[in-house]
Automatic annotation (TrEMBL):
Keywords noted in UniProt: Transferase
tRNA processing in keyword set: no
Listed EC numbers: 2.8.3.5
The organism of origin for this protein: Sphingobium boeckii
Pfam families from the UniProt entry: CoA_trans
Top-rank lineage group of the source organism: Bacteria
GO molecular function: succinyl-CoA:3-oxo-acid CoA-transferase activity
Protein name: 3-oxoacid CoA-transferase subunit A
Length: 234
């Protein structure tokens, strides 16, 4: 049965509710589900917990949900130049669970793999370790981190077929494949929908068993967060 939906709005029907947890792929402005996020804003769901590396940039991506005061808590690893993110956190309007980036990635991977907890040296002796169980392995102290899972994962891929098999392109791959495995429902927005049988099985990054719905993306801006150039010689 085809998993293709006609529009981002249709793909989100019956999956959104107040108080839910959403994982959103992307790193900086690369690989963000640009078409699904505005539809979540339009739906007006609130008290969201959002798991994402960062929270968009001014006027773009998850910033839209922050600006609309739909996010109650962020679980992320990077604030960046998002002034609204900073402002809401410092004013107490936004809860923030800040993670080392590798720990965040592994917590998401663990959620998709069914591993409820794991130990890491990252964060030992810092505020990251406060309140977390610790144990000594081979003479070194490790802290215990728990998995992350979500009611909904929204990811951005390059190509998909009707079965939901996904292929990502270069750095847009980032957190997306792991997040696709860790949601109760996973919706992938893609730039291209290809005919079944097009993919070489060895080139599939996320098997369709992890993907519930696929929609052709309507926004593909691919912004550059910080553009640095130099004069061309000659």
């Amino acid at each position: 049965m085809s998993k293709i939906y006609p529009s981002p709005t249709a793909a989100l029907v019956d999956v959104l509710f107040d108080g839910m947890t959403i994982m959103s792929g992307g790193f900086g402005l690369s690989g963000n589900p640009e078409s699904l996020i505005p539809e979540i804003r339009s739906a007006g769901v609130k008290d969201l917990t959002v798991i994402s590396n960062n929270c968009g940039a001014d006027g773009f991506g998850l910033w839209m949900l922050l600006d609309n005061r739909q996010i109650r808590k962020m679980i992320s690893s990077y604030v960046g130049d998002n002034k609204l993110f900073e402002q809401l956190y410092l004013s107490g309007e936004l809860e923030l669970e800040l993670n080392p980036q590798g720990t965040l990635a592994e917590r998401i991977r663990a959620g998709g793999a069914g591993i409820p907890a794991f130990y890491t040296r990252t964060g030992v002796g810092t505020i990251v370790a406060e309140g977390k169980p610790a144990e000594v392995f081979d003479g070194e102290l490790y802290i215990r981190e728990s998995w992350l899972r979500a009611d909904l994962s929204i990811v951005k891929a390059w190509r998909a077929d009707s079965a939901g098999n996904l292929m990502f392109r270069k750095t847009a791959r980032n957190f997306n494949p792991n997040m696709a495995t860790a949601g109760k429902v996973t919706i992938a927005e893609v730039e291209e929908i290809v005919a079944d049988g097009t993919f070489d099985p060895d080139h599939i990054h996320t098997p369709g068993i992890f993907v519930d719905r696929v929609v052709r993306s309507t926004i593909n801006e691919k912004r550059i967060e910080k553009l640095t150039t130099r004069p061309r010689s000659g």
